[in-house]
């Protein structure tokens, strides 16, 4: 297949992980395909053997990116006339492309948890995502939960082809040899990860015995002071530490050594750390979020509700998990499968024209 891949806007976070591994796996799974990958000028996204198109983004980037995408993605599509186009997030050209386009939908948190976004970011997502949903010939949803949310909130999408394509997690096989001699690892990148809830649960655990050492990774600078005050107030200075964004090598080492993965996120489109932890043979603790429950499939300790006590109880119960069964479940999530299922959808919309 000849494909144009719009990878604009995938520089950071979970969508960066998705873009990196999907593109790498595509080159291995279908080396005969020709992918033209569109990235911002100066991007660090690795495109390997694929054809790379770097485009300049006018400032401010949040407004300049859709302008650049509309101009240059349209131009590249017009020149190449690919079989199909794949936008890796629902923010792409604002004009209807001349070729069939599928959009990857990661979550609809900005609509279902609007309080977790600034007003500006909500408006930008509403406009850009809404336009992408209107223009798409088909959709790749990263979970059943995400597809259900898309159909419920954007009813017009129900009439177009869609596929649920889970992320891969087999990239962890290239990480350092796993052990369980490190800290428990939790995440604090966004408010949906509930770092405050985690600290309260750790304080409850400390009432009975010294809690497992814990590191919160991905702490933003603007949140660090408040979280540190809470750690001090709860008397957790000897048990919990805060970490900013880690370089990739250090992040891999930290997770590979983790005693457990603590992931009480109240909203996920997929929940990659859950599957990564399972694949590494780690006990994983989660909240009752639909997407997380979908991918864990009974192989994680689940909070009964969204309270600190429920999280403390789930952490205390990890000894009952069958870690080998969890590892087997985690290793069914491969990037080769993700590529193949995505490609099948692109072939379907290409046949429809």
How would you describe the overall organization of this protein?
This protein is an alpha/beta fold and 353 residues long. The chain contains 13 helices and 13 strands. A seven-stranded parallel β-sheet has the order 3-2-1-4-5-6-7, sandwiched between helices.
Number of discrete domains: 2
What fraction strand?
A: 5-15%
Q: Please name the CATH architecture of the largest domain.
A: 3-Layer(aba) Sandwich
The level-1 CATH class of the largest domain: Alpha Beta
Main beta-sheet strand count, sense and barrel state: 7 strands, parallel
Tell me the overall shape. Answer: globular
Order of helices and strands: EHEEHEEHHEHEEHEHEHEHEHEHHH
The radius of gyration over CA amounts to: 21 Å
Reading side by side through the largest sheet, how are the strands ordered?
A: 3-2-1-4-5-6-7
Helix content: 40-55%
Structural class: alpha/beta
Q: What do we call the CATH topology of the largest domain?
A: Rossmann fold
CATH superfamily of the largest domain: Glycogen Phosphorylase B
By DSSP, the count of extended strands is 13
Low-confidence stretches: none
Distance between the termini: 14 Å
Report mean pLDDT, rounded to a whole number: 96
Number of DSSP helical runs: 13
Summarize the SSE layout with pairings.
Blueprint: E1 2-6, H1 13-29, E2 34-40, E3 51-55, H2 61-80, E4 84-87, E5 101-105, H3 109-112, H4 119-135, E6 138-141, H5 144-153, E7 162-164, E8 184-187, H6 195-206, E9 214-217, H7 221-233, E10 240-242, H8 248-256, E11 261-263, H9 272-279, E12 284-286, H10 290-296, E13 301-302, H11 308-316, H12 323-330, H13 335-352
Parallel strand pairs: 1-2, 1-4, 2-3, 4-5, 5-6, 6-7, 8-9, 8-11, 9-10, 11-12, 12-13
């Amino acid at each position: 297949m000849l494909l144009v891949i719009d990878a604009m806007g995938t520089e950071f976070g979970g969508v960066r992980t998705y873009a990196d591994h999907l593109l790498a796996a595509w080159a291995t799974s279908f080396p005969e395909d020709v992918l033209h990958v569109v990235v911002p000028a100066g991007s660090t996204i690795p495109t390997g053997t694929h054809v790379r198109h770097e485009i300049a983004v006018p400032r401010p980037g949040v407004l300049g990116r859709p302008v650049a995408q509309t101009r240059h993605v349209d131009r590249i599509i017009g020149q190449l006339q690919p079989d199909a186009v794949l936008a890796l997030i629902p923010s792409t050209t604002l004009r209807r492309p001349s070729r069939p386009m599928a959009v990857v939908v990661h979550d609809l948190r900005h609509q279902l948890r609007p309080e977790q976004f600034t007003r500006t970011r909500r408006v930008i997502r509403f406009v850009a995502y809404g336009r992408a949903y209107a223009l798409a010939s088909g959709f790749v949803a990263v979970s059943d939960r995400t597809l259900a949310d898309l159909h419920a909130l954007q009813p017009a999408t129900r009439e177009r082809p869609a596929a649920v394509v889970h992320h891969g997690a087999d990239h962890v096989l290239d990480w350092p040899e796993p052990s369980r001699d490190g800290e428990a690892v939790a995440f604090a990148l966004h408010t949906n990860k509930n770092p405050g809830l985690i600290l309260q649960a750790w304080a409850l655990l400390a009432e009975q015995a010294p809690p497992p050492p814990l590191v919160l990774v991905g702490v933003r600078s603007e949140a660090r002071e408040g979280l540190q005050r809470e750690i001090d107030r709860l008397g957790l200075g000897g048990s919990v530490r805060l970490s900013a964004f880690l370089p990739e090598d250090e992040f891999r080492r930290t997770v590979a050594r983790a005693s457990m993965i603590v992931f009480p996120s109240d909203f996920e489109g997929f929940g990659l750390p859950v599957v990564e932890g399972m694949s590494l043979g780690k006990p994983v603790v989660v909240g009752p979020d639909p997407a997380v429950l979908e991918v864990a499939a009974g192989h994680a300790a689940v909070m009964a509700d969204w309270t600190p006590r429920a999280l403390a109880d789930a952490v205390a119960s990890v000894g009952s998990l069958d870690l080998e069964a969890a590892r087997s479940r985690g290793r069914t999530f491969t990037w080769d499968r993700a590529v193949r299922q995505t490609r099948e959808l692109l072939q379907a919309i290409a046949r429809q024209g």
